[in-house]
Amino acid sequence: MVMAVKIKVMPSSPNANLEKIKKEAKEIIIREGGKNCSFEEEPIAFGLKALIALFLWSEEKSLDELEKKLEKIEDISSIQVIDIRKAFG
């Protein structure tokens, strides 16, 4: 079974390079088994934008290791799983 996952990636500052963070996060998500990865930007405050990663993930795999690897990306202050749903199709 496949899950649709949304993870909020908070940069450490408004000056963080979001394109670089997206590229590194996408590489990690795909390497760990995620599929159809895309990103949305969500304005927070004072120019700070969160990245919302959307991707498909196998229900059999834990997200814990993925979260730990994403947290190691430079200029990331936090990672939070904000939505998980079973995907049909």
Description:
The protein has a single domain (2-87), classed as Alpha-Beta Plaits (2-Layer Sandwich), CATH 3.30.70.60. The model has no long low-confidence stretch (mean pLDDT 94). The protein is 25% helix and 49% strand. With 89 residues, the protein is an alpha+beta fold. Strands 2-3-1-4 form a four-stranded antiparallel beta sheet, with helices on one face. Strand 2 (35-45) and strand 3 form a beta hairpin. The protein has two helices and four strands; from the N terminus they run βαββαβ.
Q: Please give the alpha-carbon distance between the first and last residues.
A: 10 Å
Which word captures the global form?
globular
Largest sheet entry: 4 strands, antiparallel
Order of helices and strands: EHEEHE
How many separate domains? 1
CATH topology: Alpha-Beta Plaits
Total beta strand runs: 4
Question: In the CATH classification, which architecture applies?
Answer: 2-Layer Sandwich
- The DSSP helix count reads 2
In short:
This protein is α+β, with helices and mostly antiparallel strands and about 90 residues long.
Please name the defining characteristics of this protein.
about 50% strand
SSE blueprint and pairings:
Blueprint: E1 2-11, H1 18-31, E2 35-45, E3 48-58, H2 64-71, E4 76-87
Antiparallel strand pairs: 1-3, 1-4, 2-3
